[in-house]
């Protein structure tokens, strides 16, 4: 019987890189890459210089592809998994990988939430403004539930916020604002007199917060007041603001009266 050229070139029990790649549903380039990375070298080379693989090589390739499917990098497989000797060591590496994947899932879930929220804001804005997009993303990362307010701010307010606050101070300001808002609602529900010492102390803290935010620029305060009165705001937000303002406004009036000033009147002069 005549032997073919392939039978002369390829010893029995070996397969070419192309055959091995087809068998494992990968590319020859992938096999070459694994060889360069020291993960899987061919068992032999033919007379013509072709890489030759055995069934044992295919088994090792199967292991590599299975671990890669679990999210392990090639470096992890080569340097962390293959050298392990005991089931306990392997189990620990698998547990570490499971934790890393869980954290990745959580990050991706958060990114998906932010993408969905930003998409809604973009559709409502009806304008292309990447500065506002960036501000919205930052506030979503800060877990600021009022990120949607940004689309209502004009450039002057946004430029002021960017120049006056960083992420840390911005988070601190939002916590202070929300705490004072909740306190105003509680004081109103308790029937606290807006002119009482407790209410005046509250009004002082609230006004200090406002002046900290505006830096004394009352034109910003006017814009914020206009924004608060806008009709196209979130209904739950407006309802809560109305409840808080029902106490905040008379408390501020009593506070300014005691000081003998009217900052709003000074603004219009």
Descriptive key words:
269 residues, mainly alpha, 13 helices, 70% helix, MerR family transcriptional regulator
Structural class: mainly alpha
- Spatial arrangement of strands, main beta sheet: 1-3-2
Q: Unreliable runs, pLDDT <50, ≥5 residues? A: none
The counted number of beta strands is 3
Q: State the helical fraction.
A: over 70%
User: What general outline do the C-alpha atoms trace?
Assistant: elongated
Strand fraction equals under 5%
Map the helices and strands.
Blueprint: H1 5-9, E1 15-16, H2 17-24, H3 28-36, E2 44-45, E3 51-53, H4 55-69, H5 74-81, H6 87-125, H7 130-141, H8 155-164, H9 167-189, H10 197-214, H11 218-228, H12 235-259, H13 263-268
Antiparallel strand pairs: 1-3, 2-3
Helix pairs in contact: 6-7, 9-10, 9-12, 10-12
């Amino acid at each position: 019987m005549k032997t073919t050229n392939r039978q002369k070139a390829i010893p029995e029990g070996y397969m070419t890189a192309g055959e091995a790649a087809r068998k494992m549903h990968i590319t020859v380039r992938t096999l070459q890459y694994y060889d360069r990375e020291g993960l899987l070298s061919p068992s032999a080379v033919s007379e013509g210089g072709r890489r030759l693989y055995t069934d044992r090589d295919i088994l090792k390739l199967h292991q590599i592809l299975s671990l890669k499917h679990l999210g392990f990098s090639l470096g992890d497989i080569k340097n962390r998994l293959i050298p392990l000797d005991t089931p306990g060591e392997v189990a620990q590496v698998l547990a570490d990988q499971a934790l890393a994947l869980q954290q990745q899932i959580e990050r991706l879930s958060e990114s998906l939430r932010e993408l969905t929220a930003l998409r809604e804001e973009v559709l409502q804005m009806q304008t292309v403004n990447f500065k506002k997009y960036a501000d919205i993303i930052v506030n979503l990362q800060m877990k600021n539930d009022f990120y949607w307010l940004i689309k209502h701010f004009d450039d002057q307010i946004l430029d002021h916020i960017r120049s006056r606050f960083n992420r840390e101070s911005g988070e601190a300001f939002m916590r202070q604002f929300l705490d004072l808002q909740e306190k105003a609602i509680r004081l109103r529900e308790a029937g606290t007199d807006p002119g009482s010492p407790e209410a005046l102390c509250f009004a002082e803290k609230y006004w200090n917060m406002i002046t900290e935010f505006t830096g004394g620029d009352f034109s910003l305060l006017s814009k914020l007041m206009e924004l608060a009165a806008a009709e196209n705001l979130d209904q739950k937000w407006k309802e809560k603001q109305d409840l808080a303002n029902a106490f905040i406004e008379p408390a501020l009036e009593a506070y300014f009266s005691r000081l003998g000033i009217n900052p709003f009147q000074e603004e219009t002069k």
